[in-house]
Prior knowledge:
With 108 residues, the chain is mainly beta.
Amino acid sequence: MAFGDRKHERVDFERGILVYIMGIDGTWRRDCTMIDVSQTGARLCIKGSFEGLDLKEFFLLLSSTGLAYRRCRMVRVDGDQIGVEFLARDKATSKKKSPRPQSTDEPA
């Protein structure tokens, strides 16, 4: 295994899956191929240069419209491939909505 032992099983894609990476502020975007993925991260092959991009935190867009995405950070580089770790969602956004107040006007 090129990147060492894994805690979570990875799914390899024979031909890769077209995905995109995008800066948190939306100022840059690159085409990528997802080579493999697990619950905690993925391996991407980046098309074009990624020199000068802030890869401390970015979005992995799983659809061209950006409706399916994961927040990531780069953990390793190997030529045109990078290993990314998925970041946990903010606790504030993952909290469930409080239950709706019950109306006292409902018939018994």
